[in-house]
Amino acid sequence: MLTAGVDIGGTKLLAVAATGKGEIVAERRQATPAGADAVLSAIALVVADLMAAAPGIAAVGVGLPGLVDLDGAIHYAPNLPGFVGVPARERLAARLPVPVAVDNDANVAALGEVLHGAGRGRREVLVVTLGTGIGGGLIINGTVNRGGFGLAAEIGHFTVDRDGPVCACGERGHWEALASGTALGRRAREWAARGDAPGVLARAGGVVEAITGHEAGESALAGEADGRAILTEHAGDVALGLGGLVNIFDPELVVIGGGLVHLGEALIGPIRAALPAHVEAADRRTVPPVVAAALGEQAGAVGAAALARTLVPPP
Amino acid sequence: MLTAGVDIGGTKLLAVAATGKGEIVAERRQATPAGADAVLSAIALVVADLMAAAPGIAAVGVGLPGLVDLDGAIHYAPNLPGFVGVPARERLAARLPVPVAVDNDANVAALGEVLHGAGRGRREVLVVTLGTGIGGGLIINGTVNRGGFGLAAEIGHFTVDRDGPVCACGERGHWEALASGTALGRRAREWAARGDAPGVLARAGGVVEAITGHEAGESALAGEADGRAILTEHAGDVALGLGGLVNIFDPELVVIGGGLVHLGEALIGPIRAALPAHVEAADRRTVPPVVAAALGEQAGAVGAAALARTLVPPP
Predict the structure, then answer these.
(1) pLDDT value of position B268
(2) N or C terminus: which one in chain A shows less Cβ crowding within 10 Å?
């Protein structure tokens, strides 16, 4: 059986046709157009294109960045203008010839990782995506837990430092505000402004304001002392929030995905090292392994295709 | 069918025989003896006593305050001396004539509330116990989620204020350290020390050091301005952490239990009022109702009896 998965990002749209084993048989990518009408039309068109390229697609799954309820309607989508209050699933169902499901983008990425990636074979997995913000997916008893209304797993949005920086959502000191990729950029600018990040600063043409998380990561990957120190400090704040989530969930495994995961062990290593200090009774229990996501940027689309399989009755 | 439920507290042991509907047909209570051997013997004796009083008990459930793994072994139990590394279920199984299950005390209390109390009929419920510490239970898809190793739902142990007071577990600024009943006492002493809690102070004989959460609660219940203001400030810190957990879990319902729940609406009202400010996009979603636990101090024993029912094959 083939299904289609569409992952809508703030800037790009990735669509795949995949088998039941998560093997991609066709792929399309394009820029994300502006506005809900244009995005929904683009989804319908790309699915039609995939159907022509890979006949036999039985259902479609879509991942969108925002608060997506159990009916596939979008309640809040700060990174996808025009989508608040849009019944996305219902509107897509009217335009597609096969069943369609819609969920949050991090939830579908988590489903992809647990079925076909780093979490394969596990039942209790915490998936954390470190990028512009912090997203996540809660794999409980082998499947994505969506909570009472579908909005679960906004795991970046709990306070870890009530006097800390303001989060994109408006609340002060959320984990996302301290430990996202965006926060890595702010951290690097702070180091550079006080003269402690020469390697990072050079990569931004000597302009402190031009530094983002990208330059900090590149400096660390190049083995420069300042980039590595900044990334280690950052990993400490990732571990601070992650330790709380381990206490809350007791996962078998933590999978780190999102844009920052291209840093690999330069990021994951320090997170792993700092985690036990924040896990209750760490010396008397199993602290879960922390590993990088395996599906990379395709996790969302592959997971959306897996979500679509839940719409197809077993043969 | 009857089952027995035994709830082991730091100071008292409560045991019940209950029907499949959670109706208590016999009850025993005593002080918790010191040491694992004595506690396990006391459980075996009280179960034998209940079996004589209520023939037909088919299984036994036990709730213990600590990190209890999926085999019913205790990994960490700061409030129950002598229990670290004790295979409690295995040792009880050797002494009891019927099957026995062991879980964390807050988990069994949560099970009691969702099957027979305030959470009846709900599938996604967050149960928070505010007492000496903060405990909790995660009801996901209608049952207790125990995580990968059985240790889930240590919901008091995530950082909300990295510069805050040290938690009982040793980490700084955990939610428990700010919002437990113990923390309410510390808060009231701070108010009294700076001369802002005359009503509370009078209830402690004018001795600041003698103030606990009890006096603050009594003052609030009596309608005194200082007690009410302290409780409202405290409820704000309860809501700060609770809002994060709502973002993470998106529960249908939040049930507040534990020792502080006897304060009723004097505590729950301000928590409910303060919660939306800490819930992402609160104006575009359902913020879950916050209600008091219904089973009171019997929640743990009734829930343990419900846990025991999972050991009995259906007729």
Answers:
(1) 97
(2) C
pTM score of the predicted model: 0.96
Tell me the CATH number at B210: 3.30.420.40
Does the residue A129 lie in any domain?
yes
Provide the token pair at B207. Answer: 């001795």
A218 shares its domain with A198: yes
Chain A touched by B149 (CB under 8 Å): yes
pLDDT of residue B200: 98
Alpha helices in B20-174 (DSSP H): 36-53, 88-93, 105-116
pLDDT digits (tens, 9 = 90+) for B55-78: 999 999 999 999 999 999 999 988
Domain co-membership, A80 together with A146: no
> By 3-state DSSP, what share of chain A in percent is helix, strand and coil, each rounded to 5?
40, 20, 35
**pLDDT one-digit tens code per residue, A43-68:** 999 999 999 999 999 999 999 999 99
Query: Does B203 lie in the same domain as B59?
Result: no
In chain B, residues 236-275 whose CB comes closer than 8 Å to chain A? 240-241, 243-245, 247-253
Interface probe for B, chosen from A249, A253, A254, A279 (most Cβ of B below 10 Å), is A249
For the segment A264-289, the average pLDDT, to the nearest whole number, is 96
In a domain, B315, yes or no: no
Domain enclosing residue B272, as ranges: 121-294
Residue A111 sits in the same domain as residue A126: no
The 3-class secondary structure across B276-288, one letter per residue, is: HHHCCCHHHCCCC
Q: Which among B140, B280, B285 is the nearest to A149, CB-wise?
A: B285
Using 70 as the pLDDT threshold, list the residues of chain B that sit under it: none
Long-range contacts formed by B44-48: CB under 8 A, 24+ apart: B44/B92, B44/B95, B44/B96, B46/B6, B46/B13, B46/B15, B47/B4, B47/B6, B47/B15, B47/B96
- Mark whether A86 and A100 lie in a shared domain: yes
The pLDDT of residue A314: 79
Using the Cβ of A66 and the Cβ atoms of chain B, whether some distance falls under 8 Å is answered with no
- Please tell me whether residue A135 adopts helix, strand or coil conformation: strand
Q: Which two tokens stand for residue A204?
A: 């931004």
* Alpha-carbon dihedral angle through residues B212, B217, B223, B226, given to the nearest 10 degrees: 40
Q: From CA A278, how far away is CA A235, in angstroms rounded?
A: 12
Are both A285 and A144 inside the same structural domain? yes
Same domain, B140 and B284: yes
- For residue B235, the model assigns a pLDDT of 98
Q: Does any domain span residue A211?
A: yes
Residue B259 and residue A58: Cα distance in Å, rounded?
54
Residues B203-249 have pLDDT tens digits of 999 999 999 999 999 999 999 999 999 999 999 999 999 999 999 99
Shortest CA gap A2–chain B (Å): 29
Say yes or no to pLDDT of A101 above 80. Answer: yes
Nearest CA-CA distance, residue B47 and chain A, Å: 30
Number of independent structural domains in chain A: 2
Chain A residues 70-109 with a CB less than 8 Å from chain B? 75-76, 84-85
